[in-house]
Fold this protein.
Amino acid sequence: QVQLVESGGGLVQPGGSLRLSCAASGIIFRFNRMGWYRQAPGKQRELVASIFPTGSTNYADSVKGRFTISRDNAKNTATLQMNSLKPEDTAVYYCNTVPVPGSSYWGQGTQVTVSS
């Protein structure tokens, strides 16, 4: 009964900021890698950022220096702080975790639109 629930998407102007949150249940959160992916119309889904149980992170080159992923193990949440947003960041953003190999879980997705 793994569930990931995302929130925080919306419409923002270029240069603006949004904070996305992912609330996880059904997993031992502190033991799991958490990832944020996005998919724009006509594009493949891509990894945006991930954070490991150790706190180590990685980012897509396109978002380095602008986005920050974090986790709060006490609240079972993963956050993606998105700054200096660009129109190219427009996509549906998904939270993901893979508690065991071959079992990938996704949130419902939250729309981020960056437009003037």
User: Anything to note?
Assistant: Residues 2 and 27 are 6 Å apart (CA to CA).
